[in-house]
Specification:
- The complex is a heterotrimer of chains A (127), B (83) and C (234).
- Chain A has 4 helices and no strands.
- With 127 residues, chain A is an all-alpha fold.
- Chain A has one domain: Helix Hairpins.
- In chain A, helix 1 runs antiparallel to helix 2 and helix 2 packs antiparallel against helix 4.
- The mean pLDDT of chain A is 84.
- Chain B is an all-alpha fold and 83 residues long.
- Chain B has one domain.
- Helix content of chain B is 80%, strand content 0%.
- Chain B contains 3 helices and no strands.
- In chain B, helix 1 packs antiparallel against helix 2 and helix 2 runs antiparallel to helix 3.
- By secondary structure, chain C is mostly helical.
- Chain C contains 8 helices and no strands.
- Chain C is globular, with a radius of gyration of 23 Å.
- Classes of the chains: A mainly alpha (127), B mainly alpha (83), C mainly alpha (234).
- Chains A and C meet through helix 1, helix 2 and helix 4 of A and helix 1, helix 2, helix 3, helix 4 and helix 8 of C.
Chain lengths: 127, 83, 234
């Protein structure tokens, strides 16, 4: 049977490839932005996969004895998945929504000027 | 559980391909929202509950809403795309 | 041209991913992650290690992150500010049932968002998730009643005061413990798994939640309304 990490990583990589294909092949601006969102989702999935180890638990401590018992404390890192990649992806998701909103504002503005979402018909920069 | 994961991943890839070839932009946006929601499920499976909450609230929720508002201010059907 | 180039680029990207990404689980977590887990409880007494990393160890990055969000919202408002050429259908006013239901739900959703960001150091959740929930309550009001005027001044005040207080808290860390956003000896760490514990972490996360919530609410309002012609607002 397939390993969980392999499955998730494969899905993330395929999402990145499909998103790139959408960005490069489509001419509709909103379709290109949807490809961008798919690439974002795939990249977040890949980065979380780097810290995932099957059989361990989420990095939330639930035993109060840890503070008083140093022997228990030294065994703790062996129970948890990596918290650093989770913090990084949390940051990345929030920034992604800001970037997406800014790009969509430009899309709305471009539509107001050109009355079309088709990049092939934005001829003002072509000679 | 791994069977459910394989099904979810296959559904995500199929939805992603369908979203690229969908003519109606609103349908495509909802499909991408579904992909984000399933990514959030995979985050729960990978023991990252914080990231799963953020992905569900921000990427699957707010991003979809912002896309829908932008489509409402522009147009729904995919124009062009012919050489 | 594009049809030839696209498969080549995709093949190259696929090859890079195939080479660069390990498709099996790592043997152990990274060294820095191990140290965060090991000292996180002693340093911050927060049950949620991810919160401890975001708010304390990488607190300066979080300040930069909310600044990036602020900049992108400002940019979106700036881009959409012109009043020309936007075609908006005249909205039909929503029914009494929808409007009353939205007003009824607004309070509980707001409270739920506040709950999420006040408990960020104990359970999964925190400022960003709670801020998004707060913004979604504002979105509900705007969807039910499109002409509702947002209190832009109040939102701006909440946003800028929480950002300012974030920096002030960091400065207090410099004055008392010698490093920006330090958590040592400023507030008592308290008992483990108490709401008022973990020193400055809940304070900072509430500030982050208020800032993110007001920013996202402003963003939704700007995407919906800014740049509209006066006549179309029913």
């Amino acid at each position: 049977m397939i390993e969980p990490t392999t499955l998730y990583t494969l899905t993330g990589a395929l999402l990145i490839l499909i998103g790139f294909a959408a960005i490069m092949l489509k001419r509709n601006l909103i379709k290109m932005m949807l490809g961008f969102v798919m690439v974002e989702a795939g990249v977040h999935l890949l980065i979380i996969c780097f810290g995932f180890i099957p059989g361990r638990t989420a990095p939330i401590i639930n035993t109060p004895d840890l503070l008083t018992d140093p022997a228990l404390m030294s065994a703790v890192p062996q129970q948890f998945v990596d918290p650093v990649v989770q913090a990084i992806v949390l940051t990345a998701i929030v920034i992604a929504v800001g970037v997406t909103a800014l790009m969509l504002a430009y899309v709305v503005r471009l539509y107001g000027v050109h009355k079309t979402l088709d990049v092939g018909r934005y001829v003002s920069l072509k000679w | 559980m791994i069977f459910v994961d394989v099904l979810v991943c296959a559904a995500m890839i199929a939805t992603a391909i369908a979203a690229v070839f969908q003519r109606s932009l609103i349908s495509a946006v909802i499909m991408v929202g579904f992909i984000s929601l399933m990514v959030s499920y995979l985050f729960v499976r990978m023991d990252a509950p914080d990231v799963a909450m953020t992905e569900a609230a921000i990427a699957a929720g707010l991003t979809t809403v912002i896309f829908l508002i932008a489509i409402r201010r522009t147009e729904d059907t995919e124009s062009g795309d012919k050489e | 041209m594009r049809q030839i180039l696209t498969p080549i680029v995709l093949l190259l990207l696929g090859a890079v991913l195939w080479q660069a990404v390990p498709f099996t689980a790592p043997a152990d977590i990274s060294e820095i992650g191990r140290r965060f887990v090991e000292f996180g409880v002693a340093d911050n007494r927060a049950a949620n290690i991810v919160t401890s990393v975001i708010v304390n160890y990488r607190g300066l990055d979080t300040l930069g992150e909310v600044s990036v969000l602020f900049l992108s919202v400002t940019g979106a408002i700036f881009v959409l500010r012109r009043r020309e050429g936007l075609i908006l259908a005249t909205p039909t006013p929503s029914s009494e049932l929808v409007a009353t239901g939205a007003r009824l739900l607004f309070g509980p959703i707001l409270l739920f968002g506040a709950y999420i960001f006040a408990h960020g150091h104990l359970t999964p959740g925190g400022g960003f998730q709670g801020g998004a929930i707060v913004a979604s309550s504002v979105l509900l009001l705007l969807l039910a009643d499109r002409d509702r005027a947002m209190a832009h001044n109040a939102l701006g005040w909440i946003e800028s005061m929480s950002g300012f207080l974030y920096v002030v808290v960091g400065m207090v860390g410099i004055a008392i413990a010698g490093s920006f956003l330090s958590n040592k000896g400023i507030l008592p760490l308290g008992l483990w798994n108490d709401l008022f514990s973990a020193g400055l972490i809940p304070v900072i996360y509430v500030l982050v939640g208020l800032k993110v919530g007001s920013e996202l609410a402003t963003l939704i309002d700007a995407m919906m309304h800014s740049g509209e012609k006066e006549g179309t607002q029913a």
